Amino acid sequence: MNVDFKGYGENVATFLAESTVKEGDLVKVSGNCKVSPCATGDAITGVCVGVRDGYAAVQLSGYVEVPATAQIAVGYKGICANNSTTAKTDTNARQYLVIYSTTNTVGFIL
């Protein structure tokens, strides 16, 4: 049996984008209606799914898979940004439902 969570509860909003935002980045709100790439320890607002003409489409809910610094146990876990492209676990971070994890990838519900 194959399972797939892509498409589950996806919600995408358009924001102004800092010039350094790229598709695939973990992003945070950095100003009025504006997102920028996450830095170490930042709370994750969402994942940039597209950038065009100074705007970023940001997935705010639903299932995402992103690179991770290490395998994160399944269940509700604190996750924050390690940098703009990689997530890490942190007990003080916002809790997300982790449903897939390998040594370098984590899949969770935003």
Q: In brief, what are we looking at here?
A:
By secondary structure, this protein is an all-beta fold. The chain contains no helices and ten strands.
Q: Would you mind describing this structure in some detail?
A:
The chain starts with 10 loop residues before the first strand and ends with a strand. The model has no long low-confidence stretch (mean pLDDT 96). It has a five-stranded mixed beta barrel with strand order 1-3-2-4-5. A five-stranded antiparallel sheet has the order 6-10-9-7-8, with no helix packed on it. By secondary structure, it is an all-beta fold. It is globular, with a radius of gyration of 13 Å. The protein contains no helices and ten strands.
What are its keywords?
110 residues; mainly beta; five-stranded mixed barrel; five-stranded antiparallel beta sheet; globular
The main pleated sheet reads as: 5 strands, mixed, barrel
Summarize the amount of helix as a percent range: under 10%
> Mean pLDDT, as a whole number?
96
Percent of residues in beta strands? Answer: over 45%
Number of strands: 10
Helix count, per DSSP? 0
- Report, as a whole number of angstroms, the end-to-end distance: 25 Å
